[in-house]
Design brief:
By secondary structure, the protein is an alpha+beta fold. The protein is built from 13 helices and 39 strands. A hairpin with a 5-residue loop joins strand 35 and strand 36. The protein is globular, with a radius of gyration of 26 Å. The N terminus is likely disordered.
């Protein structure tokens, strides 16, 4: 590899979405010193070669662990674990994905309910068909293709190579019954520049611009037209006519209600001020009357230039002001008007794009307007979600991770990084599917994962499948994979010595999908009735009244009680743990006096730190860190199992000597476990790269770890210590499966007190009882 190639890679990486972005509200500027890169040329070249090398099947296991070296999947018909049958023969074979009558759920074209087990993939090689088959086998029926179609030179053109990637992805996924969600635009990675012919935002990297710049919007429409209306050479039809393209995301992670809007400057700021003045004139009749309504309140000079009513411009507060409670009545009234203007501006853009895609481009795919958070999710999130209501699908990107600090912590793990390893079972309000769902809209989580260096990952698929089912979240997309099949430990970008961070095709994530995807998609865990239904007037949104329950982990309803809606009939606080009891809904433009909630005290034991679901099938112990599932067709437990000893369920008993593990027992033939003739037992523990080493340190005033060695391939998995009993007289044999579902051996089933009991192999992920 030449120095020039390395340099080009560096430059490309600096514009790459996964290299240059932070997560969960944090941006990390990933700047590589090219000089330092060139000095380490030999090291980086070797690292790149090592990352692409095959994993030896004879890799040595570390003490107390087993090496994860799966054979290449040849998709044998003898596999005992292949979930391809859950998918349609061809995605869209019965028509487009649509909505239920109440708008809350997805339906297939034939009217059958659709639940999507999904992931983000940017894999782009000749064997895309094989990649799709690999995913379908593990329960996937939706992928998100997050591309970048923005132009390199001409504003009205697109990146044709990116379009071809999308075309090939849709064609391959379609053949395996996998639908596609397409996300074409993220301001942070856009290659479009003001010099191409739209408003200069003062170097703010296009943040917020798409919502109000008519010239950029015109180009954006042209981009969509080129993507959707020209025939896909791999299928013969344009994407606008292909029902395999299920969801269109208008844009990714941008909002006028986030911190990024504060830096809009120059001609773009002038145009936004003009549009605000236009909004005020329409609302009040004149700018003078608006000023009177504000009692003359003005924006301080350190936030914006003064009002210029003579030239039809009104000054704008920075979004930080919306997170505060200060100033007089006039000051607050002006803030309310600005919040309404921002929300309605975004809503108007979303409505305009819906009309364009539907009417002019004749595309029937469902539309998701956005997926982001705000500068203050207590005061502003409902206004943000209201702006999405111009379209059919609600969404939010939400990850689970602890602290991670280091030079490249936005995208890579290297020696010297510090982090906290914290199970979500001890922090239940951070579970990514604890979401307030707007009534009448499906809710999706387009990006999420248990992000490395988080080690407690096997709980992730269990918790997502269980609580996604309980709450009726319609699609959860794991982030992300670029590999054909498994992702083994290796460089985050192919040349920097490191370990990848935004990865999910690993043994404790993707390796735990089969049982989780099966129980979710087959409906083995019941959806609960709503436990909270909040109605919110639009006036309350604009006035930033506190909701009775929020998604913010730090929400304190007692602290915010004085800011509740004056007309709400609920005056007492609602615990954020309500999301673990059952679905939480909200209605925008409703009557706050009609809000309702069940008696949560019968499900939440605050003193004992336990939460039961309204269905009675789930119980979370966030004191000791465990969650149990007990339904007729799926039973199991995740968490710190050794301290509890034995878990007894309706038809199964699970005992584990592992400090931490996840065990799922799921019916594969849709019969109750006690009568099933085919049962999947799945076990996960903790996986780390070979040679992984840390030492204890304090991180953010909490116990944490410093990475001494980020390790290398292969994964080393802590051996399982699990015994399972099933009250079932039908099954006769226990088949130990490899990572591809191939049976390599059988183990004895013992008759113990009317049950079939066996000790789970210490070096396996799956056993099927037949």
């Amino acid at each position: 590899m030449s120095a020039n190639v390395i340099s080009a890679s560096v430059r490309e990486s600096m514009t790459n979405r996964d290299s240059c972005r932070g997560r969960v509200g944090t941006w990390v500027c990933c700047h590589f010193e090219e000089k330092a890169i060139l000095c380490c040329l030999l090291t980086l070249t070797l690292a790149a070669l090592a990352a692409s090398a095959a994993i030896s099947p004879n890799s040595k296991a570390e003490d107390g662990k087993w090496a994860f070296v799966p054979p290449r999947d040849d998709f044998s018909t003898n596999s005992m674990l292949d979930l391809r049958y859950l998918n349609e023969s061809v995605a869209g074979e019965s028509g487009y994905v649509t909505l239920s009558k109440d708008g809350n759920d997805f339906l297939l074209g034939n009217g059958k309910p659709a639940r999507f087990w999904a992931l983000n993939t940017s894999y782009d090689k000749a064997n895309m068909d094989r990649h799709a088959r690999f995913l379908a086998k593990r329960g996937v029926n939706m992928v998100r293709f997050h591309g970048n179609i923005t132009p390199k030179e001409n504003l009205m053109s697109i990146d044709l190579a990116e379009r071809d990637k999308l075309w090939r992805a849709v064609a391959s996924m379609k053949k395996q019954g996998i639908y596609v969600t397409f996300s074409p635009y993220w301001a942070g990675a856009s290659r479009a520049k003001p010099a191409m012919g739209y408003l200069d935002d003062g170097g703010n990297k296009n943040w917020g611009l798409l919502f109000f710049d008519s010239k950029l919007q015109a180009a954006y429409k042209a981009w969509w037209k080129q993507v959707l209306t020209e025939p896909n050479p791999h299928t013969g039809i344009p994407l606008a006519s292909d029902p395999a393209l299920a969801i269109l995301q208008l844009q990714n992670e941008d909002s006028l209600l986030f911190w990024t809007s504060q830096k809009i400057q120059g001609p773009a700021k002038k145009e936004l001020r003009r549009q605000f003045a236009e909004f005020l004139t329409k609302k009040y009749g004149s700018l003078t009357k608006a000023s009177e309504a504000w009692a003359g309140a003005t924006v301080s000079r350190d936030q914006d230039s003064p009002d210029d009513f003579a030239n039809n411009e009104a000054a704008l507060f920075i979004v930080w002001e919306m997170t505060q409670r200060r100033g007089g009545v006039g000051h607050q009234k002006r803030l309310s008007d600005q919040l309404q203007f921002f929300a309605e501006t975004m809503h108007g853009f979303n409505r305009m794009m819906s009309d364009y895609l539907r009417t002019e481009l004749k595309c029937k795919a469902l539309i998701n307007a956005g997926n982001w958070r705000t500068a203050d999710n207590v005061k502003l999130l409902d206004a943000e979600r209201y702006s999405y209501s111009a379209n059919e699908v609600m969404g939010v990107n939400r990850y689970y991770n602890g602290a991670h600090h280091g030079k490249h912590d936005g995208w890579a793990i290297i020696n010297g990084d510090t982090f906290t390893d914290e199970s979500v079972l001890l922090h239940p309000s951070k579970l990514p599917v604890t979401l307030k769902q707007p009534d009448g809209f499906p809710m999706i989580v387009p990006e999420s994962s248990w992000v490395p260096p988080q080690g407690y990952q096997s709980e992730g698929p269990f918790m997502i499948a269980a609580y996604q089912s309980l709450n009726g979240i319609d699609a959860y997309y794991w982030f992300a994979t670029r590999e054909e099949d498994w992702r083994h430990p290796g460089s985050a970008n192919g040349y920097l010595p490191s370990e990848g961070k935004w990865v999910c095709a690993t043994p404790m994530l993707m390796g735990q999908w089969p049982a989780a995807a099966l129980l979710y998609r087959a409906g083995h865990v019941r959806q609960g009735e709503p436990v909270v239904y909040e109605q919110r007037s639009l006036r309350d949104l604009w006035e930033r009244k506190a909701p009775i329950i929020a998604e913010d982990a730090g929400f304190d309803p007692n602290r915010d009680r004085e800011n509740f809606s004056r007309t709400s009939n609920i005056k007492t606080s609602i615990s954020p743990l309500a999301y673990l009891v059952g679905p939480v809904f909200t209605k925008y433009g409703g009557d706050p006096a009609q809000s309702r909630t069940v008696n949560l005290n019968q499900f939440i034991d605050a003193a004992g730190k336990k939460v039961k679901s309204i269905t009675g099938e789930l119980e979370l112990d966030y004191e000791n860190g465990s969650c149990t599932l007990n339904s007729p067709k799926a039973q199991g437990v995740t968490g710190f199992l050794k301290k509890a000893g034995t878990f007894k369920f309706s038809d199964t008993t699970i005992t584990s000597g592992n400090d931490y593990a996840t065990v799922l027992v799921v019916s594969m033939d849709d019969k109750d476990l006690k009568a099933s003739g085919s049962i999947l037992v799945q076990v996960g523990t903790v996986a780390r790269p070979t040679g992984w080493k840390t030492k204890p340190v304090e991180v953010d005033k909490k116990p944490g770890e410093e990475i001494v060695s980020y390790g290398k391939a292969p994964w080393q998995i802590i051996k399982g210590d699990v015994t399972v009993s099933v009250a079932n007289t039908t099954v006769k044999a226990a088949h130990v499966l490899d990572a591809n579902g191939m049976s390599g051996a059988t183990i004895p089933l013992q008759d113990v007190d009317g049950t079939k009991q066996f000790r789970f192999p210490e070096d396996a992920l799956y056993v099927v009882l037949k």
